[in-house]
Amino acid sequence: MGAERLSRNQNRNSDAPLILGLQPSALVDSVATVDLSLLHQISGERGGSIPVGIDELENILRVVKSNSHDTHSSMKTLAGGSVANTIRGLSNGFGISSGIIGAYGDDEQGQLFVNNMTFNGVNLSRLRKKKGHTAQCVCLVDDLGNRTMRPCLSNAVKVQPNELMKEDFKGSKWLVLRYAALNLEVIQAAILLAKQEGLLVSLDLASFEMVRNFKPQLLKLLESGNIDLCFANEDEAAELLRGEQNADPIAAVEFLAKYCQWAVVTLGPKGCVAKHGKEMIHVPAIGEAKATDATGAGDLFASGFLYGVIKGLSLEECCKVGACSGGSVIRSLGGEVTLENWQWMYKQMQIKGLPTPTDVCK
Fold first, then answer.
1. 268 phi/psi in degrees, rounded to 5
2. Mean pLDDT of the chain, nearest integer
3. What predicted TM-score, i.e. pTM, was given to this entire model?
4. What distance in Å separates the CA atoms of residue 344 and residue 327, rounded to the nearest whole number?
5. pLDDT, greater one: 22 or 286
6. Mean pLDDT for the stretch of residues 173-186
7. What span, in angstroms and rounded, lies between the C-alpha atoms of 2 and 283?
8. Can you tell me the distance from the alpha carbon of 29 to that of 27, in angstroms, rounded to the nearest whole number?
9. What Cα–Cα distance (Å) separates residue 6 from each residue in 78, 112, 216, 230, 257?
10. Are 85 and 336 in contact (CB under 8 A)?
11. What positions belong to coiled-coil segments (predicted)?
């Protein structure tokens, strides 16, 4: 298939990662702080995530770089993607053995992705190398810390449904997914194999545009009964219930809980609401009200929440750990938590009486 494994360890299932993330295309983020005047030059709504072609992506990068002399502008390039952010957080910040399934190109961006994830302790034995381009995304962050994302995925290499094997999932406990219409076939194939191997499945709803434009497919996925944990932010929750008489976050959690064991709606600075079984809870945010950059906030919230579930914590404690980890990433630019901000998170967890990771070597 023109793909090669990053590692050919035939005994990898004996030490299979506890949590696996499916990110069909490795992704490199270019994160830039910009002012509102620059955002007006970018097509599409602010605050969302709309796919663009390579020409438009390069044009956005040119516009950003041409404004880089402005004291309000700066750019950071790092391995990205929602699932990669969550998996990296679980591995580096929480000491949970984690791996990623996907493909990367034989280019500079692909090597950057590999280097970054390897440095953070992520198992890459299920990551395929292919000839071609690695996916890229421009994340534009305004003065309020809100991010506008423009991913370029159309010409990027990615893992195909028929390349997935039962062995990829054997021995793991969780599969972490992000909803994407372009990847629906590989998502469905991964869920089928994961369920055959007894894994629990976590799904993030990705963006309000994705929910709005591909709602029937999403509802079918939820109704399958194969999604055990679902994360949505406030905008995604509103889209999910658009047209309903009651479309508030609590109603969204109730809706998701009909299909999933755990349902979580994150509310930014207002915290989150979650439901598990008959228990419904609201937990406030932790940390500064003003975010430096909201990129990765939901992804790192998921890292903390999953850590809590794995450790057998209560629903309230899972939400609190998620609030701590989500609060840690918004303190600096990009979806990767710095050492200083991990230390901040551990301190917040200790203050709130939450069990901190004891096997994380810093």
1. 60, -130
2. 88
3. 0.88
4. 9
5. 22
6. 95
7. 47
8. 7
9. 19, 14, 36, 30, 38
10. yes
11. none
